[in-house]
Amino acid sequence: MKLLDLFIVAFIPVLKVLLLTALGLFLGLDRIDILGKEARKHLNNVSFFVFNPALVASSLAKFTSFKSICMLWFMPFNILLTFIIGSALGWMLLKITKAPSNLWGLVLGCCAAGNLGNMPLIIIPAVCKERDSPFGDGHTCYNQGMAYAALSMAIGSIYFWSYVYNIMRIYSNKNSEGAKLDDFTESTKSEVEAGASLSNSRLGPLLPLNVSSLKEDHLDHQELDRTNINEGKLKVPLIEKIKQFFQTFAMKINLRKLFAPSIIGAMVGLMVGSIPQVRKVLIGDSAPLRVVEDSASLLGDAAIPTVTIVVGANLLKGLKGSRIQRSLIIGIIVIRYIALPIMGVIIVKLAVHFGLVKSNPLYRFVLLLQFALPPAINIGTISQLFGAGEGECSVIMLWTYALASVSLTMWSTFFMWLVK
Question: How far is CA 413 from CA 40, 376, 406, in A?
Fold first, then answer.
């Protein structure tokens, strides 16, 4: 296949995303006001709690099995590497640009988490359906590609909500605590100054204190506290210590977010797809409960267009601008569209060389594509949730998704040439 043909095959899916994004941008205009702030909020909730879980569950149940899951064991490790390398490069970017602390969580999240859900689910089926697709028969390519894309979305959701969510939560909490501490310090300082002036003007000098007695009392209290602490440590059993450790861990990591609706959908889909007895009941034309899977697929089909037009409407905030360093935007673009794809080529090449990845060209294409995706859409949701860097996030999303049309097309063309 000629390079121009590969370029056209790669550009078609990206063009579909751009058209849907432009539609969302148009519907979000103040003059149109179909996708206003409240409408986007409600549509986001429906997509988050209904459409996305249905899409993940139906795709995994239909296109994966226990055998295919065992064969695709390298994909979770590959996605984990994208998060680790992206975080390391994002940390270097923060140190170089000396970004303000309130943007640290946002920048790390944009560098670490790619759009592992919607983009592969749009790009891979579109590439398979093209007439000159380099991946062979369209039907076989579509079934395999949907399995890869669904597994990518499920694993990406687990990593995102367990890692990126908590990074952004921790940095937003630090900033809010710092602001509260500054306010408290200023108010305390003013109170002390007011009290000092009051005592000097009205009460006169106070009586001298017995410093030695205060020191003795302080030492006695310290000894008593140490004794109580040592006794408490001796009395606390091992089981209670383990219980306290897990409780503290659960509070810090926020385990409830690990079981977001999409992750629950992934668990259900994996269970249905990997257990033959359950699969026969729900999946296939002769399955007695096939209407359940058909209904889930029908709901899941609405996820991709819904989320894409909402992203387009959210980009309006980015058009209005925000006070963010240009160096940060340029750095995120370089990391996501230059550094990570180059690292992905090296990692996948090494994995193929050492026999860790099978020779299926479509599978290798998906592994490479996971390194070249724009930032995850849910980063904007988290920034709105914590109220940290919401305007800056819109600007970052605007530029990264605008340049994704060029970057994804070029890298997809190169990846298809590389694996064919």
Answer: 34, 22, 11
Find out whether 75 and 96 touch, Cβ atoms under 8 Å.
no
The residue written with tokens 């995303």 in the block is 17
Instruction: Specify the number of domains making up the chain.
Output: 1
pLDDT tens digits, 375-384: 987 787 777 7
| pLDDT beyond 60 at 197 | no
Give per-residue pLDDT as tens, 351-366: 998 888 877 889 999 9
178: in domain: no
Cβ atoms of 174 and 115 closer than 8 Å? no
pLDDT for 246 equals 60
Mapped onto helix, strand or coil, the DSSP state of residue 163 is helix
Phi-psi group of 33: left, alpha or beta (phi > 0 → left; psi -120 to 50 → alpha; rest → beta): left
Amino acid in the structure at residue 152: S
Q: Please give the residue range of the domain that contains residue 316.
A: 3-48+67-138+300-419
In a domain, 184, yes or no: no
Q: Tell me the CA distances in angstroms from 311 to 56, 142, 174, 323, one per residue in order.
A: 19, 26, 28, 21
**Rounded distance between C-alpha atoms, residue 373 and residue 336, angstroms:** 7
Q: What is d(CA 303, CA 299) in angstroms, rounded to the nearest whole number? A: 7
Q: Which amino acid is at 179?
A: A
Please indicate, yes or no, if residue 41 is contained in any of the structural domains.
Answer: yes
Phi and psi torsions of 114, nearest 5°? -95, 170
- 283: helix, strand or coil: coil
Give ∠ CA 63-68-70 in degrees, rounded to 5: 145
Whose CA is closest to 310, among 1, 6, 36, 4? 36
Q: What is the largest CA-CA distance in the chain?
A: 95
Q: Is residue 35 part of a domain?
A: yes
Tell me which residue of 156, 109, 115 sits closest to 262, measured CA to CA. Answer: 156
- Asked if 64 and 270 touch (Cβ cutoff 8 Å), the reply is yes
